Amino acid sequence: MPHSHLQLDHIRVGYRVPGGWHVVVDDLSMELREGRIGCLLGPSGCGKSTVLRAISGFEPLLAGSIALHGEVVATPRRSLAPEKRRVGVMFQDYALFPHLCVADNVGFGLRRESAAERARRVGELLSLVGLSALARKYPHELSGGQQQRVALARALAPRPELLLLDEPFSSLDADLRERLAGEIRDILKEAGATALLVTHDQAEAFAMADEIGVMEHGRIVQWDSPYQLYHSPASPFVAAFIGAGVLLPGRSIGDGGRVSLELGEAEATQTPPQGGRDGALTVLVRPGDICADGRSPIRARLVHKTFRGPDYVYTLRLPSGSEVLAYMPQEDGHQVGDDIGIRLCGNRLVSFPAAGAQA
Ligand code: ADP
Ligand code: MG
């Protein structure tokens, strides 16, 4: 039975301001088992870095407790020093030491080991991240992605019980970012590491994590697998944050298995939408839910068009003024300003009782 490697129990963390505390993280609980990669995903400023600083021991707790590997390391009264927690951290600005070669950067946290053991461990890590051939290079001679992997090897070298990664890819280009996230996931899995990533980037979270907690204003609003988050978001906030969906007003029809909205009618997802009074719903419409159909009576104005390679992303304005995104094949040839016939493609739609409506 794998241990619970990291356990946050109702933690509250804040910063001192004149006259009191600015509470940033409140009543946040989560658990990560050994060998798992977790992620806290949320918009900038929601408190992600603050959680990591509390776990690594750089911010005190105002309430709750933190346990690492079954041992309580922090409560409001007691806090184990950061260097005793065996937590490795890789920050957004993972600055390597410019005057040290790759091997010496990786060996930096191993100064107390014998020279032979240090060399052995550095060799092992460089091979793990696929950079053995670059051991004697200096940071300025490496690409951004290579520097990132050196930083990862450096963080893993002292065998931390837990690795924390704070927006580790945000300084990289979008395409490199997703590829590297996948590579780093493979490296962490091979090393058997337990890791907690924080990011505001959904693609990065999905590429790396086994389980994700979506954060809103210092709390976790849903903890789930990427699949469940995508297909069964627990609230309109999660729904809008995951994927490029848009929330539109609608209502439930029949005995609740279908929804009706400006774009037409569709099947609802497994939970029959309750709807508020009058069956009012908020319906999530994702780009893949909309197809072009020249014969459809529902028309939308093409207001923006982005080429992605395999297809285009259309921004479409509906008669009500709401805008939705849709993926369209290249050969469609529509121009900005055109009115296009569209319909729902037959995917089941996620919906919630409309805000303010009574169930
Ligand atoms: P995130 O990493 O999700 O972007 P942070 O944890 O960095 O969010 O910050 C959450 C909130 O805490 C923000 O409102 C930020 O302004 C505030 N904050 C962060 N660090 C400090 C600090 N050292 N002193 C005071 N307020 C801070
Ligand atoms: Mg941050």
Molecular structure report:
With 359 residues, the protein is of the alpha+beta class. The chain has a domain at 245-353: Nucleic acid-binding proteins (OB fold (Dihydrolipoamide Acetyltransferase, E2P)). Helices cover 22% and strands 35% of the residues. It contains eight helices and 20 strands. It has a six-stranded mixed beta sheet, with helices on both faces. It has a five-stranded antiparallel beta sheet with strand order 13-12-11-14-20. α3 packs across α4 (144-156) and α5 (174-191) packs parallel to α6 (202-208). The longest helix has 18 residues, at 174-191. It is globular. The chain starts with a strand and ends in a 6-residue tail after the last strand. The model has no long low-confidence stretch (mean pLDDT 90). Bound molecules: adenosine-5'-diphosphate and magnesium ion. Magnesium ion (MG) binds at residues 48-49, 166-167.
